[in-house]
Write a structure and sequence with these properties.
Elements: E1 47-51, E2 58-59, E3 72-77, E4 85-94, E5 97-103, E6 105-108, E7 115-120, E8 126-135, H1 149-157, E9 167-174
Antiparallel strand pairs: 1-2, 1-3, 3-7, 4-5, 4-8, 6-7, 8-9
Length: 175
């Protein structure tokens, strides 16, 4: 249920689990993507981020002004059913002409599917974006875009001219 205080028979008060909230395991020891006997999931988007509390989460459809409610930021990638790793950073500027200002450190959930990343970001006015990407940890990579040369180059210089696969951009402006 979206709101435990609202009517449980109202179909508009129900939603799928957000993919991040997992409680217990089934008989096969697979994590339960749900909340039996626990607080409902937060219904976070599959990909996005927020700074401070999660009252305003920026998803992939966001553009425009954002006023972070704190310096501690969280990024999320909730639908990675494979075992690839997730990287992410906050950049100042535009894609193709930017500077990395904070890199997310991601933790993998036991199932390997939902990833949550955290960093600190002391925002000053300007144009920013969060970049999130998947990579094979066996090939290279790390917690910073600079450790994945083609992704980092595309984000900071625009070369190569096409976006790497599995790159998600969330732009925002601090006024």
């Amino acid at each position: 249920r979206i709101d435990a205080n609202d009517d449980g028979t109202d179909p508009d008060n129900w939603a799928n689990n957000d993919g991040y909230t997992r409680v217990g395991a089934d008989r096969g020891q697979q994590l339960i993507v749900g909340t039996p006997g626990a607080k409902n999931s937060k219904h976070w988007p599959m990909k996005g981020f927020f700074c401070g509390d999660d009252h305003e989460i920026l998803g992939t459809d966001h553009s425009g002004a954002y006023e972070p409610s704190g310096e501690h930021c969280t990024a999320m990638w909730g639908d990675s059913e494979d075992k690839l790793s997730i990287g992410g950073s906050i950049f100042n500027g535009d894609v193709g002409s930017s500077t990395e200002v904070a890199g997310f450190t991601f933790s993998n959930r036991p199932s390997g599917s939902s990833k949550i990343g955290t960093t600190n970001f002391d925002a000053s006015p300007g144009e920013y974006f969060v970049a999130l990407w998947r990579y094979d940890n066996n090939v290279g990579g790390g917690f910073s875009a600079s450790r994945i040369p083609s992704t980092y180059s595309y984000i900071t210089t625009g070369s190569p001219s096409s976006a790497p696969l599995d790159l998600v951009i969330v732009p925002f402006t601090i006024e």
